[in-house]
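note to self: dont lose this again. the chain is below, predicted strucutre after it. 86 aa total, dont forget to put it in the shared folder this time
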Amino acid sequence: MIILTRGQDTETAMQGVSACTIRFWNGRAWSESFRASGVIGLPAAVELCVWFTDDQEASGSSSRSPDCWRIFAVPDGLQAMTGGDP
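---
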């Protein structure tokens, strides 16, 4: 299950999730980690891949495409990182 939380509000976004990957775009390359305290600004985008299967071999592996794949742009992410307009 994927739950979104903002402040004190929570919302269930997806149920039946067996695996997921999250990557962060810094304007030059994808990274599998993001530390808000270690960088200036936010990532420019966030990629989310989700698998809805219980097959451990296929879940999260490159052998099978994710069941759901989305890239979310982060408003002001790239601008905050570059110090200006993208």
